[in-house]
Amino acid sequence: MHGAEWPKVGATLALMWLKRGLRFIQVFLQSICDGERDENHPNLIRVNATKAYEMALKKYHGWIVQKIFQAALYAAPYKSDFLKALSKGQNVTEEECLEKTRLFLVNFTATIDVIYEMYTKMNAELNYKV
Question: For the Glycolipid transfer protein domain, which residue ranges apply (predicted)?
Fold first, then answer.
């Protein structure tokens, strides 16, 4: 249908950016669940967001977008506020929230991995910078 190469426009391009964003979320949540944190400021999630950004998005961003991300980190919520929002305001402990997040990540990670595999098999990935 598409010859030797998959078209790299339209829905293919949109899914490519979506999968990168989903990988950012996955790495970010996994980092929080794994207990990674800034020892000097344990209630900040900048370490987690930075790790996720570096693994999922940074190589696709030019210098200006990278600086915008670094500035946006200062608007990130505290870990306690983030977990409360993730719990939809329910009265649960941090560990209960993290355990539910770990369970969520099992299927979420598997789904993202399949999308990445599909893009690799179809040679549909684009590596340009924005």
Answer: 9-87
